[in-house]
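tmp note - PAS fold-containing protein
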Amino acid sequence: MSNATTSIKKFFAECEQEPLSYSGAIQAYGALLHMNSRQEITHISRNFQEILALPQFEIGTRVPDFLIEFTKNLADEPNSREFFDEALEGQHYSLSLALVRTQTYGILFEFFPNQSKSLLSIQAPSQIYQSFSNWQQVSQARQVLIEWIAQTTGFDRVMYYQFLHDGDGEVIAEHTYSNYQGTYLGLRFPASDIPLIARQLYLLHPWRSIYNATQAPCPIEGHSLLDLSYSDLRSVSPVHATYMQNMGDVASFSLPIKLQDSLDAMISCHHTSAKTLPLADKVKIFHAVRQFNIQLRDFYTRQRVKTLDEMQHIYHRIFIEIQKITATDQAWEHLGQRLQTIFDSDAFILVGGSLSHPLSSCPIHPEFLQALDTWFTDQCDELITTSEHLQNTLGMEILTDFAGFCACKWHFLDSSDLYRIYLLRYEHLSDVYWGGNPNKPVEYHDGTLGIAPRRSFSLWIEKRLGYCKPWPENTQLKLLKLREFLKKQASFN
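out:
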């Protein structure tokens, strides 16, 4: 393994281990208090008295009644939330209040100064409330939503950041103002830019706000570190703060797009100076994004059902055709040829069970087949799989013209033998447009943090070698339906 590869893996590991939820500090523009289930103060931000213009609260004392009054309707389930616009008068501004129930059934009180007036005078676009019938409507609604958020919030750049199956992300919609340099539209960003630990936190929040990434955090006082997993005021990671500054940004506001309990995408707003939104505006934007998310989730569900129904019909026809073929090898070859067309592959291999030898649509090098079949049979726990970079998947360099594959393994209804189908694709040369060199951590170290955020986000074109043409999103569904169908059939004997 090269030193560069080792450095990249070390960088990824260190990013994942950063204790984001236990930073011990908040963003200093707001104030925080944590109350336990006995209504006692366990943690309080050091700036609490200054922000709220109240006498100093002491750790271990009871929370004042005027604050407890806000909690009377807060649900008991962890991550339940309540929002109060202009709840109190602070030292310099009126304060909005966000309440959130913690995992230990305590309550976080987060106070936000209302430094600006509401900008949400324009209604959310009607497209996000309408059911999507096709991908074009999804794309149009996405762009309209992005433009509405940009127009009503005043952020310099608003992006729709789509996560890809390999963990990388791509900007697929964007709105920028004319005085804001450059565009990220169509650019890809490596998975390490938003580590898994950060993605998991996004799933817990309606949004994430960063007022000023250059501002020093405010410590939280208490006898232990407070879990800030549900806190929007949670301090900014030093790595992320440097990352933002390297992008030329100071403030951000991000909202998750969720599908099947996973982070599918993010709407990310960036600004070149310190900026926050009134809490009421955040809530309104969240509801608009959630409505889009609901329609998107419904569209994906309908697309999934449509694909499954289509494949049920297609596979049924294939097996009717096979029943008319008397020779076993010819039946297998017919199945392989039909699947090769369905999956748009360049070749197929059928292995196992009662087959005396592998069947394939073209000559296959024995060492390649052995390596592929050993990996899928003995090392892969999945019953179906896809790969766009065969050498990486197998963990070895092996002589073959193929660059990617999808595969399925199953037992026929009347057999305990394990069968495998491999559908192969040749190498597909392509250009990948990155927002900066994705391997930047190897080239640059800031000398302070111990891990290095990327420094450059200028267009960087990768000539991608050794990859096949990407498998469509519905490939896994097609494989699942194929396996389900094969399991119900008698073997071709």
